[in-house]
Amino acid sequence: MTGTPLRVGLVGYGLAGSVFHAPLITATEGLTLDTVVTSNPERQQQARAEFPDVRIAATPDELFDRAAELDLIVIASPNRTHVPLATTALKAGLPVVVDKPVAGTAAEARELAALAEDRGLLLSVYQNRRWDNDFLTLRKLLAEGELGDVWRFESRFERWRPQPKGGWRESGDPAEIGGLLYDLGSHVVDQALVLFGPAAQVYAESDIRRPGAETDDDTFIALTHTSGVRSHLYVSATTAQLGPRFRVLGSQAGYVKYGLDPQEAALREGRRPQTTADWGTEPESLWGRIGSGDSPLTGGGRPEPTLPGDYPAYYAAVTRALNDDGPNPVTALEAAAALDVLEAARRSARDGVAVAL
Fold it and tell me: How many CB atoms lie within 10 A of CB 204?
């Protein structure tokens, strides 16, 4: 790629901004991290240490005052700020990437999508788990017809965190849009919709299990897709024994995969895609298995090599889209469809009924 790099303003430098966005922005040819917005002195110091050339702004207003100097805004601040900040950025004439969930409701996501379309601007939602190693491997298997007709898709994002950590993600205030349904649920629902198409019906069970917890920490979502596939999705912070990340059952074979994609851990440890030769790869001992069989020890079938995870592909695609050389990798309307499911799941769990979409 040639030409002047696109200048990026990053709003928020907590976990999302410092781990999932800044390292990937700086690893992307054609992008440069111009400004980080955070009012926290320790995070300001951290950003300067990690990216000595970056400018620091204490408030989003300071960033928007320099809108003409920027080419893209990335919003990685708390969930409740996503809609107002994205709206301000779009009205300032700036393309936007918003971390998931893009909004608290599908209606708000569609309003943002309409505003972006009206202004002729990119609005993309950061759904990095579409580039997890297991998800990429499963998409390949499905494309090749290795499983036959898929009957059931099980997906788990489970953790063992018996003590709440606090913070806005675990706040019981609905305005914060916290809880696992909207946090990890945004990932598992998005993946299910990408793989198997729209949902026709949603059923959910959602609980607050841990003492002192204020919002859901153990949730199950069942989707009936219009394609006939059933997705069973689990998100939990209360799982003392973890289940498989994926279990996919089809008419010809099944695929079972344990363990999480290694990219998040690598980013947290300070490793970077541009300096890590084996980025996104995992050892053979973690490969999933595909096939059939009754053995509870081996699961039957054969080991299936896991494709490397590829989080850098997201910002590479955003860069191409901004240069009119490719599509938006994750649209706000796709995110709105996932929010339709999450809202239905919340109603289902509250009322104890299945919700038709």
Answer: 26
